[in-house]
Amino acid sequence: MPEDSEDPFRKRTGVTRRGFMATIGTGAVAAATVGPSATAEAAPGAEIPDAAELLRVTLTINGRSHRLLVEPRWSLLYVLRERLGLTATKLGCDRGECGVCTVLVDDKPGYSCMMLAVESEGKTIVTLEGLMRGEELGPVQRAFVEEDAFQCGYCTPGQVMAVEGLLRANPNPTMDEIRTGVSGNLCRCGAYAHIFKAGQRAAELKKQEGGRA
Ligand code: FES
Ligand code: FES
Fold first, then answer.
1. Is 3 a domain residue?
2. What's the gap in Å between 189 CA and the centre of ligand 2?
3. Which of 28, 143, 190, 204 could cysteine-pair with 198, CB 3.0–4.6 Å?
């Protein structure tokens, strides 16, 4: 299409398509070079943090200690994803309803969207990345693969963490206990039957491997 004043894109935006594509290219380079703090500042609704409001915290995540400056309002989920790059933990409802943001807090499953980062200090946090050994999947993750326990996969990190937390508390759960264990995690694809089987298989694999995460 000719890039003239009849171009609907140009009418709507005031720029030509070619000019727009050139701008995207420049922006991508800038985003790649400015680092994570710029990402947060550019997030929708985000404001530039006031240094006087930042709090110094030390968070223990996946066995590592992280010293960070955080705003009091930042959730643990936000810090995991946007400050530490631990993006296996997903953002869904952001209001404690879907479970996709589940992590282990002192070995118990919890919604990281509902927990402030400052509240997490002094607790032991485990995310999905913490179940890996290098590139090797942990037994719960392998059980989900073996049992084909996902479709789109978006809920899977939360489901895996819920099962991991269940098995740490109860290595021999009944099927009813597995159902209850993942009842705080919604799967919009409806893969529940396979998720429950994955819970059973994960218990077997963990036993074979001496209970490793
Ligand atoms: S994103 Fe945390 S419960 Fe939905
Ligand atoms: S596999 Fe798609 S939401 Fe659970």
1. no
2. 4
3. 143
Selection from 47, 41, 115, 44 nearest residue 76 by Cα: 115
Give the residue ranges of DSSP H helices in the chain: 8-13, 17-34, 36-42, 76-78, 139-146, 156-169, 175-181, 192-208
- Please name the residue whose Cα sits nearest to atom 4 of ligand 2: 187
- Give the pTM: 0.78
- Percent of all residues in the chain with a pLDDT value above 70, rounded to a whole number: 77
* Cα(81) to centroid(ligand 1), Å: 13
Q: Assess if residue 182 is contained within a domain.
A: yes
| 155 within ligand 2 shell (Cβ under 6 A) | yes
Output the CA 47–ligand 1 centroid distance in Å. Answer: 22
Domain total for the chain? 2
